[in-house]
Give the backbone structure.
Amino acid sequence: MNIGKGLVRVDKLKLQKVSNKIRSNIIEAVYSAQSGHPGGSLSSADIFAYLYFEELDIDPNDPDKLDRDRFVLSKGHVAPGFYSVLALRGFFPVEDLKTFRHLGSYLQGHPDMKHIPGVDMSSGSLGQGISAATGMALSAKLSNDKYRVYTLLGDGELQEGQVWEAAMFAGSHKLDNLVVIIDNNGLQIDGKIEDICSPYPIDKKFEAFNFHVINTDAHDFDALHKAFEEAKEVKGRPTVIVAKSIKGKGVSFMENAVEWHGKAPNETQYKLAMEELERAGSLLCQK
Amino acid sequence: MSEIKKIATRESYGNALVELGETYSDLIVLDADLAAATKTGIFKKAYPARHIDCGIAECNMMGVAAGLSITGKVPFASTFAMFAAGRAYEQVRNSIGYPHLNVKIAATHAGISVGEDGATHQCNEDIGLMRSIPGMVVINPVDDIETKAAIKAAYHYNGPVYIRLGRLVTPIINNSKSYHFTLGKGVLLREGNDLTVISTGLCVAPALAAAKELAEKKNIQVRVINIHTIKPLDEELVLKAAAETGKIITVEEHSVIGGLGSAVSDLLSEKLPTQVLKIGIQDCFGESGPAVDLLHKYGLDQEGIYKAIIGNL
């Protein structure tokens, strides 16, 4: 189906169902570990769904395929969201998500490329993933490879100086095979990002670093589709997609609540969250 | 000791890169606005497309190196030791060390022999920092021949390597036909059974000269070992020396905390308790001055090492 400018409409319902499953798995994983980061995982869930079920050229049966697109989770603490989408996409069994953060599990608290299929770079210390993604994009340019590189950052992460070192480098080297996505949920551990140390205006900052800037809605698949398609057409500059999101999205008592940045639900909260997500899931199945 | 040819290990590094770069097209060199000083400029001249100047942003440079290595390149990231091991420590630890990536970090201007720039640029802590990272190989070559061999070995080794290089010209000591560089293997430079001097990098030449002087003036036979690979340490060679000569003296242009002296002490305290005297920078910052004068003041030249050995007999 055409929605103007030659864009083919995405299968929104399919992606919404994937996102719903990602969200349930996030809650399962964090509840099972009794630690982890649900808030940012939930705000990133739709971005993960879009990337892994629509955008990235990857093969779960051949995770190390040389010409695959690369993804670096620079905001490594939202591993529950990342692992959930990787499992749903078939990189490893969904049941393993319950071992997240457990002693002996390969599903480490933050992404570990050495032991987790589908993870292209170990991350967790904020500000570093974007540099590695930039190196991958540069590498593709040096050897004329066609794969593209994507990296997801938090908005609080923009306070790390290294992000801007990497942005300056990517802009300077005209890395148009690099897409930086900002999960702009507006909250960090200590409070609202603009109260702590405001990174705003995010778009104008990246623009000044020679990025093509797209502002979009992180929870609207049509908008995400339009943004990622637009990024593919950009030449001579990297793209940043600033995706406005809701922290804790999909679990009402976690939405926009700063305390759910890095806290596990108790049994009652777990049941409430799972019920809400199951209801949302069954509504989607009736569509 | 041959005085014929003196060359700084940083310059040997630049030359080695050109030699390797000719054969291996996956070799990429990164710098952080110091290409003239780190001597990667020599490579830039030969292979401009494979020399990436990241600007004054060392933390990002380490991450870019990580990304390059993940996608099949063999990056050599260069800057001064202060910025490679110091400023970018956490990037090296988390983005290179933890995923055990095939990144080579060539850090020049290590130690107090940086000279006039003074304490802010004299990194005497890098060996300690780098050897504390799991899986990191740490090399401190002594001369032109060893540096070229070390760079080649680092290229062929699959994993992270930290290579410590100097600004000051140093004499060639590994010019014997039997010299062969093996990662993790020390070099026995002089036999002797009265005590053993274990040294690395810039200090090996004056340590060897002091040993010769001791033999001539005092008839003391000092065994001299060059440890170019501080991690993994050649345990066999060190334990044999400790068993045969008893006393050990370590000499390095690095803090006595965390460097070669610590590595040797760690080993001996566990496997063969032996008295170790650590000659190095004694838990203090350096200062401005000509490199040769600084080495003299801090007791790291032939005279200082000679005196320290005599005082410890």
User: Anything to note?
Assistant: The first strand of chain B starts at residue 6 and ends at 8. Chain B has a mean pLDDT of 97. The first helix of chain B runs from residue 9 to 23. Chain B touches chain A through 29 residues (CB under 8 Å).
